Amino acid sequence: MKFVTGEGKKPTTYQQIAEGGQNNPVTVHGAVCALRDMGGLTFLTLRLARGEVQCVCPPEVLPQGLREECCVELSGNLREEPRAPGGFEIAAESVAVLSRPAAPMPVALGKKRLELNLDTGLALRPAVLRHRRERAVFKIQEGMVRAFRDYLTGEGFTEVHTPKIVHAGAEGGSNIFKLDYFGKKAFLAQSPQFYKQTMVGVFERVFEVGPVFRAEKHATPRHLNEYTGLDFEMGYISSFYDVMEMETGYLRRAMELLAREYGPELELLGVELPGADQIPCLRFADAKRLAAERYGYQIRDPYDLEPEEELHIGRYAREEFGSDFVFVTHYPSKKRPFYAMDDPEDPKYTLSFDLLFRGMEVTTGGQRIHDYARQVAKMGARGMDPAEFESYLMIHKHGMPPHGGLGIGLERLTMKLCGLDNIRCASLFPRDRSRLEP
Questions:
Q1: Which long-range contacts (CB under 8 A, 24 or more apart) does 24-27 make?
Q2: How far apart (Å, rounded) are the C-alpha atoms in residues 231 and 402?
Q3: In principle, which of 99, 195, 253, 346 could form an S-S bond with 162, CB 3.0–4.6 Å?
Q4: CB–CB of 196/232 below 8 Å?
Q5: Total-model pTM
């Protein structure tokens, strides 16, 4: 009889190897990503879960037919070597092959840069993601999600998991994927908006990390049809600025975590972490006017920001305030969803905001309508039928605190932080109008 206790064998990590003393015996497993025969010795580079380790192998320890992407278990002595990556290497004493590839890699992972065009790189995504630069992007993305969870949990938020198959769209419009749900009309969720508002009435503060679907027929470097949303909603706010304060606290925590624990990835990609100690706020109308005056162009759309305007406003914030971030507040009501609270001082505008990061919108948020009569009235004014939103309006009907929240686009945040030129490079397996594989 065998019993399982949960005390499984843990692999030796890159960090443990890097911190190990000279001449310490180590055993590691990983994939062979480079082999160099130096005549009498072979230098083997082993790709671990994080990082790569140089190993020096005498001929007698090398298994026959060893090649790139063989998965191996290697044992030897750790020793200092200033010329090796990380300043250390393993003098191998044994190498056991655990599996062998059936075909060679379609790309040379040993190169510093793959230099593939976007379509080729995306078609070969399962192989390309093994490259050190690709891996670094998604380790940094991991850090931003870690910080989101850790920070909000520490601020009294509860993590929730809301449905992605819904009976009505949260944002309205035509950019919604339709489904046949056992003969009923259904949609893929554009946002967890209705559900996270509902959960404010349960837990007061909630957050979610999950997929968001938008059926937009675009082909731009900044849009995806499926992306990851970092969403939170918080009750008993005194102003929508409370929501902005919470996001600023998260961003500060995220940059601290990345600086502390993700140094190798930041260095590899040449990432310059932005400051988030204080973020300037500009009203929508003022931001448009100031950027147009500074950079000499005419405002074309008085109700929304065009991508070029976001770039100009981001540049203005950098030059004027030394900030890579800028909150743009008080968006026109006609461009915000029906649940956005109008500004009581000027109902043409809303108590809402976007956060621009290095010239691109990465967050949308604001205060929501919590009064039942006001929410129904705003729906009516927009030609909406409240009967279609009966389950959503239940929260208003039975009492809700003043509340607000936001949604952050994880891929856009990653894209701008890592200096990528296309959002598809910040998505593991991007989905756009033409891509359902891999």
A1: 24/77, 24/78, 25/75, 25/76, 25/77, 25/78, 26/75, 26/76, 26/77, 26/78, 26/90, 27/73, 27/74, 27/75
A2: 17
A3: 195
A4: yes
A5: 0.94
Asked if residues 142 and 197 have their Cβ atoms less than 8 Å apart, the reply is no
DSSP, residue by residue, 120-172: HHHHTHHHHTTSHHHHHHHHHHHHHHHHHHHHHHHTT-EE----SEESS-SS-
The pLDDT assigned to 168 comes to: 76
| Alpha carbon distances (Å) from 122 to 189, 200, 225, 436 | 25, 39, 15, 11
Is the Cβ–Cβ distance between 157 and 142 less than 8 Å?
no
- Tell me how long the chain is: 438
Q: Give how far the C-alpha of residue 211 lies from the chain's centroid of Cα atoms, to the nearest Å.
A: 11
pLDDT of residue 22: 66
State the Cα–Cα distance between residues 256 and 89, nearest whole angstrom: 30
Residue 419, token pair as written in the block: 């200096």
Joined together, the tokens standing for residue 422 give 């296309």
Helices then strands (H, E): number in the chain?
12, 18
Q: What tens digit of pLDDT does each residue of 35-82 get? A: 998 888 999 999 999 999 999 999 999 999 999 999 999 999 999 888
Classify 273 as helix, strand or coil. Answer: coil
- Three-state DSSP class for residue 72: strand
pLDDT tens, position by position, 359-371: 999 999 999 999 9
SS3 content of the chain, % helix, strand, coil (to 5): 35, 25, 40
pLDDT of 213-242, one tens digit each?
999 888 899 999 999 999 999 999 999 999
